[in-house]
């Protein structure tokens, strides 16, 4: 990969389309795409780095793993709320 590219491509067109569908579903259910959310204009399966905000427990990306280059952000009002949400996830958590 040329050094002027900071992004790495996704593995396949299927993977790229799946992530774009997840981003669209998040948007359709009230999330804000604060950054990115589209394909990059270059050959290959490149997507813009994407930040999804304004999600809650009803949003489909709330309990799904999004893979690079997308991340969803959920604001909580306390440490206790953050811990409760983290403990309720089906995903493994690192320390």
UniProtKB/TrEMBL annotation:
Residues 8-94 form the Aldehyde dehydrogenase domain. GO terms for molecular function: succinate-semialdehyde dehydrogenase (NAD+) activity. Pfam families: Aldedh. This is Aldehyde dehydrogenase domain-containing protein. It comes from Methylomonas koyamae. The lineage of its organism: Bacteria, Pseudomonadati, Pseudomonadota, Gammaproteobacteria, Methylococcales.
